[in-house]
Design a protein that fits this description.
The complex is a heterodimer. Chain A is mainly β. Chain A has no helices and 11 strands. In chain A, strands 2, 4, 5, 9, 10 and 11 form a 6-stranded mixed sheet that branches. A 5-stranded antiparallel sheet of chain A has the order 1-3-8-7-6, with no helix packed on it. The N and C termini of chain A lie far apart (36 Å). Chain B is mainly beta. In chain B, strands 2, 4, 5, 6, 9, 10 and 11 form a 7-stranded mixed sheet that branches. In chain B, strands 1-3-8-7 form a 4-stranded antiparallel sheet, with no helix packed on it. In chain B, strand 5 and strand 6 form a beta hairpin. The chains are: A mainly beta, B mainly beta. The interface between A and B is medium-sized, with 21 and 20 residues.
Chain lengths: 113, 115
């Protein structure tokens, strides 16, 4: 079992709809959760971070965290063609000096006009 | 606008040659990471440093790869000798451990092609 799992997609969503991206993680001690967006040929860029159970909203993006079920999701409202990219979920397990961020393999999102 | 910088952006070399990639982390960041990304494997962590000390290089092929951080403004990743299977995009990222968001900011990457 991978430490951080994502459906590779592609996930195709019509423009203006809500895109829902999901991620599960294996380590119950995980403390910090991130979503990165990566356009083709570019480097990953941070778009959301969340630490506590519940929802966190930032513009059209909402991150949802459920530690009991060990999943974190990203909702994109009013999807735009510019949202077409690969979305990487990342998790930090624990908070020791040696803790490190683990990335999922990413979900490819395609917004169709 | 603080950014991680990487050089070179592109490198084409022949099998057996030495390759050196350089990274300048964001000023003040105390952690530096090296990743390799391919279509097949996704983003793989090769090594990371905290306060210039290597913390984990278990993801790196030890016989040919080496990572160093000679000072706080420079991290290097060397491959010697290079092989075609090393062809990938190599990202450097830096972060500030202990301060939220305790995440990483990526450089633009070095696209390596080994012929």
């Amino acid at each position: 079992q991978k430490e951080v799992e994502q459906n590779s997609g592609p996930l195709s969503v019509p423009e203006g709809a809500i895109a829902s991206l999901n991620c599960t993680y294996s380590d119950r001690g995980s403390q910090s959760f991130f979503w990165y967006r990566q356009y083709s040929g570019k480097s990953p860029e941070l778009i959301m971070f969340i630490y506590s159970n519940g929802d966190k909203e930032d513009g059209r993006f909402t991150a949802q965290l459920n530690k009991a079920s060990q999943y974190v999701s990203l909702l994109i409202r009013d999807s735009q063609p510019s949202d077409s990219a690969t979305y990487l979920c990342a998790v930090i397990s624990g908070y020791s000096s040696a803790s490190k961020i683990i990335f999922g393999s990413g979900t490819r999102l395609s917004i169709r006009p | 606008d603080a950014r991680v910088t990487q050089t070179p952006r592109h490198k084409v070399t022949e099998m057996g040659q030495e390759v050196t990639m350089r990274c300048q982390p964001i000023l003040g960041h105390n952690t530096v990471f090296w990743y390799r990304q391919t279509m097949m494997q996704g983003l793989e962590l090769l090594a990371y440093f905290r306060n210039r000390a290597p913390l984990d290089d278990s993801g790196m092929p030890k016989d040919r790869f080496s990572a160093e951080m000679p000072d706080a403004t420079l991290a290097t990743l060397k491959i010697q000798p290079s092989e075609p299977r090393d062809s990938a995009v190599y990202f450097c990222a830096s972060g500030l451990q202990g301060v939220r968001p305790d995440t990483q900011y990526f450089g633009p990457g070095t696209r390596l092609t080994v012929l």
